Amino acid sequence: MAFPGFLLLLFLSCSPPALSLYEDQVGLMDWHQQYIGKVKQAVFHTQKAGRKRVIVSTEENVIASLDLRRGEIFWRHVLGAYDAIDEIDIALGKYVITLSSEGSILRAWNLPDGQMVWESFLSGSRPSKSLLFIPTNLKVDKDNVIFVYGNGCLHAVSSIDGEVLWKELIAEGVEVQELVHPLGSDIIYAVGFDGSSQFVAYQINAKSGELLKHESATFPGGFAGKISSVSSNSFLVSDATHSVLVLISVKDGGISFQQTYISDLVPDFSGTAVVLPTKLTGIFALKITEFVTFVKVIDEGKLEVVDQVDNGAAVSDAVAFSEGQEAFAFIQHEENKIQLTVKHGLEWSSDLLKESIEMDCQRGLVHKVFINNYVRTDRTYGFRALIVMEDHSLLLVQQGVIVWSREDGLASVIDVTTSELPIEKQGVSVAKVEQNLFEWLKGHMLKLKGTLMLASPDEVAEIQRIRLQSSEKSKMTRDHNGFRKLLIVLTRAGKLFALHTGDGRVVWSLLLHTLRKTEQCNSPGGLKLYQWQVPHHHALDENPSVLVLGRCGHSLDANGVLSVVDTYTGKELSSVGASHSIVQVIPLPFTDSTEQRLHLLIDAEQHAHLIPRTREAVSIVQREFGNIYWYSVEADNGIIRGHVLKDDCDLEESDGYCFNTRGLWSIVFPSESEKIITTMRRKSNEVVHTQAKAMSEQDVMYKYVSKNLLFVANVAPKARGDIGLVTPEESWLVVYLIDTVSGRILHRMTHHGAQGPVHVVFSENWVVYHYFNLKAHRYEMSVIEIYDQSRADNKDVWKLVLGKHNLTSPISSYSRPEVITKSQTYFFTHTVKSIAVTSTAKGITSKQLLIGTIGDQVMALDKRFLDPRRTVNPTQAEKEEGIIPLTDSLPIMPQSYVTHTLKVEGLRGIVTSPAKLESTTLIFAYGVDLFFTRMAPSKTYDSLTEDFSYALLLLTIVVLLVAIVATWILSERKELQDKWG
């Protein structure tokens, strides 16, 4: 009996578990990448021996400690969208000090490991600019003091425990610009503006907070821009016209102004000038168009130009590199190189450093530079530069080479689409053939030991290494399961990246010229990615391409820009700056002979512009003229409108690719009771396997599947703010299902005492949305399913035979549909950031909701838990159908987290894409981090997993064959003995 039991155990061990991952499986089907975003401030910490690091804060509200040798992250904290970092610095040589939330929150973090030491909340009377100042030689009762200006108050805070030592209220209307501490003094100077033309200076006792002196003076020309400190008692600012430099001196005798016309310093000056804050004693930088002029303050406040450089991209702050000596750096561009120059603050004629560095043109211009000094082996001073590029990447330059670089632009992804890889013309091999028999045997023996859980930790690591080496997941060709694809991502910097789904590496990147700042396009920004050309498998000579849409400004009436990019090579095929605004893009369900997809661009005047601009495209649109509908949402006005094409544009510059439009219908929601906060519709490319849904007792209902269905969520006007600001009686949520062709409202439901934000997902014939219930003080998720009642008699087979079946009649959106809805509401314990739904190739596999939680993780929830037909005591027929008994809350199981123990910091979106294998869907989550994996909602019923042990299966077959032969021999022998007996 023991022998068959052993065989059964051996056979069952061939099947991998379904709900968890083994240690050696991590990284085989998923990858996780950590980023920090575009750096805006940096502080070096290299004084002591050991790990040299740089502390940075970024536009993604991340504070991080980076290794200066390799650029790796020692530690980081993502403070979130509502806690923007204002300033950072280092105190006592061991604490990282951060000021955030407009000067309201001051924190100290332990420098080596990033643990928070203390946190202080600083109150104030009014919003104001925030400043952080840490004097190096000022102590109060043996305690280093941190000075913070924010919310109209100046605070002195202990660096040891964060206690507020004193607080000084600054007069209303005064905006403090600089905090200055003269060397060896106990006085803090706070200087700034009172209104637009009055300069004020406060003298405050740094130890007690007593206001010693308050001076003010009025400058008739007014001020503009920020104050730049030239010395401990001299400041520089430009006047309101940006044509005069005003040197302000604060001495015991009072405040004095000295004017210098910029045209006297720069003879060919025109336009405006900006004072760059270099924090260099006696010298400041003046940026005039493409030039940077360095000006020195000489005796009696006179200004003298010491140098002028063209193509100046960035100027660093001053850094002290020796006792009483300062240096700063500036960068110039030279074709595909940048030139880094470090100057001495006092001896301008000589360069401390001048290096030329090769630079990838796809990184764009230099936006910021931070320098740090170190001592070489020959006891001379060297300098390293931390450079922030236009594409948000981060580089460390030392001794004329790029030591390391980080693609931190990927922390600001704004849109994602997918692209297929090219077909391998030679054919895809089924399995990799090992050249070395010994290595082959060794590898399979290790896999066998790992399956039987007999492998040591070192052997587990070796198994993972072998699997990653032999895996074909990183090949640049398609696989027959459709797991290998390209993720095309657009970042806020206007840069496109192609990421391989196998290992997450960057295949190519492209900084789009149309989304870069130019004279014609002052503030460009990327908006959206669209599929432009997706050739079928027979059109191998054409590469797929994507359409990138941008806008030259933040307003809707700003002109748009377009680019078409090849997804295989990353080359920009065409680009055009549109002469009109782009308020809305309508992808049409039509393609031309080259398989380019047609799009309508709707401008602010409601004209529709067709792309691609070809006569074939025009003929296709004219042929389908009466079948093109779209809608627009005016959330601020509470109006939803339906539109159709009318005729050719009557504009003077009309070129045949522009059409007039007319309004077809409109829905106006009462502004005193409802405000639109969310709208959602189905994905246009979603596949629905069947419209019929089998119910219990052999009943069938037909899904109302329409691509013209729109979900709208409205809340009470008072409930548009944060949770808790209104009472349940003042808040309600109203949801609608609207047909966008006819404007007919098919369903309306009100949730009393509910409040947003509302996160929603729309798939097939159902909608799931998440909101907050003020009465229950809990989050809820509701589901609405909509069915087509007009097909209820489709079960009559004789009608189908006689041709009287209603499925044979044409379907029109203008015919009033007979629909019924089913809905249900459940409690849900998590705050939600984003919701998506799995998608598969044929739509057969069960659906799962992918929920991005407040903890920046992604969890999967089976759609069956959100079935509106769930009851407390389901019938036997309902149980057989798979109906789960009703509970008031949705379950959250540890095994349901798609991201395992990882976090996608700053999670903003989840994108799903079907693989060719019906059971599998590809999942990509993005925020400050990126995470990719693939999952099988109904398990891998149509394939064997990658880690299936073929060696163990072969061993099992061999053992079974031996057992059969042995059993046959024993049976023959026993039969012979019975005959002799």
Helices and strands, with pairings:
Layout: H1 2-12, E1 31-33, E2 39-45, E3 53-58, E4 62-67, E5 73-78, E6 85-91, E7 95-100, E8 105-110, E9 116-121, E10 131-133, E11 139-140, E12 143-150, E13 153-158, E14 164-169, E15 174-180, E16 187-194, E17 198-205, E18 211-218, E19 223-229, E20 234-239, E21 244-251, E22 254-261, H2 262-265, E23 273-280, E24 283-288, E25 291-297, E26 303-310, E27 312-315, E28 319-322, E29 325-334, E30 337-344, E31 351-358, E32 366-375, E33 381-389, E34 394-398, E35 401-406, E36 413-420, H3 437-451, H4 457-470, E37 485-491, E38 495-500, E39 506-511, E40 524-533, E41 545-552, E42 559-566, E43 572-581, E44 584-591, E45 597-602, E46 608-611, H5 615-623, E47 629-634, E48 639-648, E49 658-668, E50 675-681, E51 692-694, E52 700-702, E53 709-715, E54 732-739, E55 745-752, E56 754-763, E57 766-773, E58 778-788, H6 797-801, E59 819-828, E60 832-837, E61 848-853, E62 858-862, H7 876-881, E63 909-914, E64 921-926, E65 930-935, H8 950-980
Antiparallel strand pairs: 1-65, 2-3, 3-4, 4-5, 6-7, 7-8, 8-9, 10-12, 11-12, 12-13, 13-14, 15-16, 16-17, 17-18, 19-20, 20-21, 21-22, 23-24, 24-25, 25-26, 27-29, 28-29, 29-30, 30-31, 32-33, 33-34, 34-35, 36-37, 37-38, 38-39, 40-41, 41-42, 42-43, 44-45, 45-46, 46-49, 47-48, 48-49, 50-53, 51-52, ...
Helix pairs in contact: 3-4
